[in-house]
Amino acid sequence: MKFTKMQALGNNYIYVSLYETTLPEVSLPELSRLVSDVRRGIGSDGLITIEESRCADVRMRIFNADGSEAESCGNGLRCVAKYVYEHRLVNTSVFSIETKAGVVEAQVHVRPDGSVKQVTVDMGEPRFGAGSIRYAGNRMIGDDEVVLEVGTQQLQGTIVNVGNPHFVTMVDQVDDDYVRAIGPLVESHEDFPERINAEFVSVLNRNEIDFRVYERGSGVTFACGTGACASVAAVVRKGLVDKRVTVHLLGGDLEIGIRDDGHVLMTGEAVTVAEGTFAWPSPEPSLVTL
Question: What pLDDT is stored for residue 289 in this prediction?
Answer without folding.
Answer: 55
